[in-house]
Amino acid sequence: MSNEINGVEQVVQLDRLIPPAGQFFGMLGGVAVIANNTWSAFQGKNNLNVEWESGINESYDTEKFKEKLISRIHKKAKVVPPFKGNVDKAFENADKVIEATYTMPHLVHAPMNLNTFWFILPYAGILAAIGLIESLMTLNLVDDLTETRGNSNRECIAQGGANIVTGFFGGMGGCAMIGQSIINIKGGGRGRLSGITAAVMLLIFILFASSYIEQVPIAALVGVMFMVVIGTFAWESITIIRRIPRTDVIVMLIVTIITVMHDLAIAVICGVIVSALTYAWNNAIRIRGSVEVNEDGNNVYYIEGPLFFGSIQDFSDVFNIKDDTEVVIIDFINSRVVDQSALQAIEDLAKKYKKRKKTLQLRHLSSDCHKLLRKAGQLVVNSDDDPHYGIAVNYNVKTGAFGKGH
To answer: Going from the N-terminus, what domains does the chain have, and what CATH number goes with each?
Structure first.
């Protein structure tokens, strides 16, 4: 199976590349997957089917291995294995030597096919979402601290382009770091030079001062990050929990819990979904209508609030089809037709009036509503005067645009 994967050159058995600790437990065999790229090597390893012979440790479980390992650690070794090896001698004794040359920039890190694309797509989407979200959050925080206005579009394009170029050189993707940004700003950095200086100094530390960086205790770095968290956390959000809507509190808790349990991208998506549903619910219960009789003796219904899938039932309940006049006018000066469900509701209402030989007309359509209804083919009169409120044109409703309806 492993040999059939594109990029896998050979699968060989290894008997010598086993550390002394492994030999103590009878681990005297190994298998290596040789491939021309890392991706194919991992695929070959995952598809490797090896049947091992039963050894002296066949009946051992994890606890027994753990006990044996502890006893070996405390037991003084007769022969101390050397900490340094002879590379040249190792190559001389090797059965086969494989030479690999890497050039930069390198395009193909994995087989260019649809299987690779579909495999990396979800991970790429999650990483891209997390990177963009963190960068935009950092940009927003920096704008608040510096009282400036950043360009979010330029930030996203620059980050995406930089990550694409980095991939050609085998590097990891990155995004704006909120901790480093806060430290930089509190240190007086304001222009591009501050970010360039931080990047150059980080590169110098990695290339020439890594031995000194390794001496910094992990606890010190953890303390620095805790101070960054304390300085960037919106503590006032805790004090106002009792004064903000419950739905906002629920969204905050959902995003926080999902971020800790999974990742930021999924948490933000869930928060947006809950917020959108809450917004739709609040707007659905706000639609209302009133009726007046105009100078021609016709009933005019004034609708207030957006007409969409969540409010069509309340919209339909406003009208008294049986007792209405021969001509009924719906005034949308304080309302908007939003989606297909709203169009369907208007057509269903027009059909009910048509069955009673009455006419339904629409008035004061905004430009977006006019375009939506005209595209659906529901307007008999096609005029562009009413969207700009030059004159109030009464549009007759054309039925049959959506077939039999719901």
So the answer is: 8-93 (no CATH), 114-232 (no CATH), 236-283 (no CATH), 288-396 (3.30.750.24)
pTM attached to this predicted model: 0.53
Q: Which of 303, 368, 366, 355 is nearest to 329 (CA)?
A: 303
- Quick check: 278 and 266 in contact, CB under 8 A? no
In tens, the pLDDT along 27-78 reads 445 677 777 777 777 777 777 776 666 666 666 666 777 777 777 766 665 5
pLDDT for 255-302, tens place per residue?
A: 889 888 887 778 888 888 898 888 888 887 778 888 888 888 888 899
DSSP H or E stretch at residue 33? strand 30-35
Would you call 139 exposed, middle or buried from its count of C-beta atoms within 10 A (0-12, 13-18, 19+)? buried
Q: What is the DSSP string of 146-184?
A: HT----HHHHHHHHHHHHHHHHHTTPPP----HHHHHHH
pLDDT in tens, 95-141: 766 666 656 666 655 677 788 888 888 888 888 888 888 888 888 88
The span from the CA of 221 to the CA of 207, in Å, is 20
First to last CA, the chain: 53
C-alpha–C-alpha distance, residues 21 and 73, integer Å: 10
Under a CB-based contact definition with an 8 Å cutoff, are residues 271 and 303 in contact? no
